[in-house]
Structures are given as structure tokens and as C-alpha cells.
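Example record for the data management plan.
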Amino acid sequence: MMVKQYRKRPVVVEAVHFNGSSISAAAIETWMGNGGYHHPGIDTRDQRTITIPTLEGDMRAMPGDYIIKGIFGEFYPCKPDIFEATYEEVAAEFQPGDRVTKPSGYPFPGTVVAAFPKLDGEWRYVVESDPAPGLLHIFAGSQLKGLDR
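Corresponding structural encoding:
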């Protein structure tokens, strides 16, 4: 037998920190439903835990756990120490509403209307043109320069 080493692939996931409150449980339940994962067995009667049906069976999220939406739309809880050792927050350089321009090549002054990360973590920005409202273009952050900064 030959033991090999493996590196976890960089993927971007959505996650919510569960604080154990009924408000947090309800918000997570709504998020999971809105995420396309509908399961009548999400148990929030005990407002200190959430039971999450996973591919491996039901898992209980405790206060302090993170609820992760995986790359296939599945949900699962993760202990905070494991989450913090495995994940780091991905921050977008530009936010919707930011005024930007494309400083090289063809000019494209406009307003960021949406931002989304690719699976490799690199951000893309949907920009609406100032001269031609309604015209949208997607750019990498390296292609843009902020005008309000």
C-alpha cells in the first residue's frame, strides 16, 4: 500500500452561522427552503438545535455550528473549529451599486448590479452600462476600476 497526500480543492460554498435562537433557526429553515432543498423533516421545535436531513442521514446542528450549502445544493452542519480551519470568507472587491469603469481596451463605464464568485473563488461582476442603460456585461475584478474610491 502506498500512502499519498491530497489537497482539498478550492471551492466556494455558502454558509450561515447558527446561534441557537428561534430567529436564527427560522432564518436558516427559510434559507434552506429557498436554496432548492425542501424537506418536511427540518425540525426546529427545539429552538436550540436544528435537525438537517443529509445524504448520510439526519444530522443535528448545535448552537455555534455553521450550516453549509455544498456544491451540489446539499446542506450539512459543521463544527465551528473545523469550519474556521477549513474555510475563509470570500469578499467581493466591488458591491452592487458601485460605480466602475473598464480602464483598458474598449470603455465601459457603469454600475455594478450583481457580483458572484466562480467555483474557484474568483469574483465576476455584472455591470450595467451608463451610456446604454440595460446593456449588461460581465467582468473579472482585474478588468475594473472603481470610480467612487
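Summary line stored alongside the record: The chain has two domains: 14-86, 99-146.
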